[in-house]
Amino acid sequence: MKLHRQLLTAAVAAALFVPVAHAEVAIDVIGGSEITFEGLVQADGNWFDNDRADLNGSTGKNGKDSEFELRRAELVLKGKGPGNIEWVVGYDAKADKFLDTNAKYKLGGNSNHYLQVGQYKQPNSLEELSSTKNNDFISKATVTNTYAVARRLGVGYGLGDSNWSVTASAFGRELTRDLAHGSGYGLRGTFAPINDKGNILHFGLSYADYDTDADTLRLRARPNADLATVRLVDTGDMKDSDRISTLGAEAMYVQGPFKAQAEYFNAKVKRYDHDNYTSDGYYLSGVWNVTGETWSYKGGTPGLGLPNDPGRGMWQLGARFDHIDLNDGGLRAPAMVGGAPLVDGVLGGKMDVWTVGANWYWRSNFKASLNYVMVDSKKYSSSARGFVSDKPNILEARLQFFW
């Protein structure tokens, strides 16, 4: 870990001493490849107003209702060329894992028509595919964190134009050892019937199907707080799981400084010795750029540029509602009077989450975020012999530096 800290310190120092701050640092042209260096450092703080569960109590980090942590320390080398080849090697020094590490060949020189090999984000979920440094909220939506397939090793093919795209991928494990496993495939199609500057309407559908790891699957979710050590909804281990397939639907509308976005996920798990399991969830969000900036659109995902006035910065206000339902079953009457009811199926719980927040992007490299999260969850408890509610609130803050 000491080596990781030294590497991160050297990278940040190099970025800070570049004469003019840019979104990326040009390195050199080597072997016909234009090489640039990018980075992202995020530091988070979470303050918990607990209800029933102690959201940061299972690890006993500091004995208080708060946690502070370096969330990400991403270092990325990118290359353009030779010819129609683009490549990237990314590493997170905080999580000790590889990020995007792949090569892309643009067929006919068209950036919308390509073949990709290596580790990359799989073709599903608008929020998962969007840039991490421009997240609307500190934590991704509950359903995104639960259902979306992130980076895996694979082979992908993409075809599209300015207002539509189709992507297919066959994938396996994550590049870093002992992380996500399970071979499968993913498909995503997008269509933007309106795609003008400051006026965008986007629709998308995705489907991912893959093997579960060691025939065991567990779906669970934090209360939209990345530093929480407790999950308020949790299916437990479903040990006879074979495959999971997830259907996703997405929509986004941009009108000037306003953006509305929504996604729905429905997941089905094929099981050997039990009935198949189904769960679903969705989120709805809205963001307003108070200072008047708008979003761009490319390859089926939105992009956010620099502030109109770098010295003043870009201010955003946003709100999001999340819902996830991990219940697929019910309760049967006990076998004898006074006994506990029998669980028929899987009762992983339900959770609704409201998040309100503000972001401030300053100049080209800095961002500060503040979120307030209100949670309403309910899950079956065998000890209580019934459903138990838990309604905590969380204050979240993030400082971000990127180049």
From TrEMBL:
InterPro entries associated with the record: Porin_dom_sf, Porin_O/P
Coiled-coil intervals, chain numbering: none
Pfam family, one: Porin_O_P
Signal sequence coordinates: 1-23
SUPFAM superfamilies to which the protein is assigned, alphabetical: Porins (SSF56935)
Sorted UniProt keywords: Signal
This protein's record includes keyword Signal: yes
Protein origin, superkingdom: Bacteria
Name assigned to this protein: Porin
Organism whose genome encodes this protein: Stenotrophomonas pictorum JCM 9942
